[in-house]
Amino acid sequence: MTTTETRFREEVRSWLADALPADWGRGRAPSASLAGRIAEGKAWQRAVHRAGFGGLGLPVEFGGRPASATERLLFAEECAAARAPEPADIFGQLILAPTLMQLGTAEQKARFLPPVIAGDMMWCETFSEPDNGSDMANIQCRADVEGDELVVTGRKRWNSLAQFATWTMLLCRTGAPDSRGRGITFALVDLSSPGIRIEPMPMLTGDARENEVFFDRVRVPLENVLGEVDDGWRVAMAAMTTQRAIGTAELVPRLAVVVEDLVALAGRTGVGGRPAIEDPLVRDGIARCAVDVAALRRNGQQAMAASALGRPPGPEVSIAKLHWSESEQRMHRLAVEMLGLRGLLVRDDETAVDDGYWAHYWLWTHALTIHSGTSEIQRNIIAERVLGLPRNR
Ligand SMILES: Cc1cc2nc3c(=O)[nH]c(=O)nc-3n(C[C@H](O)[C@H](O)[C@H](O)COP(=O)(O)OP(=O)(O)OC[C@H]3O[C@@H](n4cnc5c(N)ncnc54)[C@H](O)[C@@H]3O)c2cc1C
């Protein structure tokens, strides 16, 4: 680490010590409601921006701050170690902003980057549809150019946090119905536009985090198209690659903290009066989790070093996505198994350990191996585009 990076780490650490109460985030209880967690995440984003850590690595003219890839990773590691809240606008700050920097026009950057960096917008992603998930080129949601607008009609599904969002990144079909990736457009849509209806979908955890979003002749100015009309596949691939790379930068540091908590949990719980930490299977399981985190961290550092040399992330981000999502699932399953029957109790049950955190998040981790491309799809990408094996069909 360079002297500048060491100084940056100290600056972040000392700000976090002031910004968060000393016992912040201990005990792992999930905050009351999804709406409560989103409100907390929004307030945190604004605090990060006010402290001068918003938009790390993005241009100063848009409210960002120059930062190396290592400094961005250091910021994420320090926030994870302090158990800081997760930012609410993951889609805007971590997916849209880098995609705009790569493919947006000067006007689009000037219009959207400042409010995204300041935490004044909340974005979602409306790509998937009832009959289209893994096969993203099969978009059916129709959009026709009328004058200087797109007119959009269709139905989207599984759209995370859409009920809290103000804008969405939309994929729609502008070409012939069978034009696959050649006839898709990527548009930025104001969710307060007439003709949009959002219906939350309750999930296994009890939270309704995902939604269905209906578009009925929604008018979108052509200036909101990212890339060109019919050129959205290229933009979507850039956004998806960024999305899969996020885990490396943002989630892996948080997994290191989960391993610490697993060790603590194994020390204070057990079956039949014997602490779980004395069980060889538990010890073996925790060691495996620690090895996963070490490997993920090392690969993340390599990816950061490559990006510092100007190499954009490629299909190898699928390796990271597959590894972190399956590792996080394994970690939470280990905790639930360690707790025996009490591991099945969810929040609001007074005998639940850590207010049901482990059961709640173990259920949630099942979503990790589906969203942003399922594990099977990541394995196909690794086989075909990283290893050069023959196509599966
Ligand atoms: C919690 C959650 C959040 C999500 N958030 C969003 C969001 O914000 N925005 C959004 O647009 N979408 C979102 N999604 C949708 C997500 O991207 C899709 O669910 C995912 O791509 C899978 O698509 P599908 O559900 O249609 O399953 P399908 O594509 O029908 O797949 C069904 C099964 O078949 C397997 N399969 C499919 N094709 C192949 C193949 N070629 N080779 C091998 N196996 C294959 C899959 O791996 C899966 O096991 C979210 C999903 C979840 C669960």
From TrEMBL:
Residues 3-120 form the Acyl-CoA dehydrogenase/oxidase N-terminal domain. It comes from the Bacteria. Residues 230-387 form the Acyl-CoA dehydrogenase/oxidase C-terminal domain. Residues 124-218 form the Acyl-CoA oxidase/dehydrogenase middle domain. The keyword Metal-binding does not apply. This is Acyl-CoA dehydrogenase family protein. Keywords: Flavoprotein, Oxidoreductase. InterPro entries: Acyl-CoA_Oxase/DH_mid-dom (IPR006091), AcylCo_DH/oxidase_C (IPR009075), AcylCoA_DH/ox_N (IPR013786), Mycobact_Acyl-CoA_DH (IPR052161). The keyword Ribosomal protein does not apply.
